[in-house]
Amino acid sequence: MIRGYNATAAARAARVGEDRAGEVGRKWLDRPDIVLRIQEIMDEEYEEIKHTKQDILNECAKQAMFDMADLYDENGQFIPLHEQDRDISINVSKVKMDAMTRRIIEVQAGKDKSKSIDMMMKYHNSYEDHQKAANSEIKVYLSEKDLQA
Question: What 3-state class would DSSP assign to 22?
Answer without folding.
Answer: helix
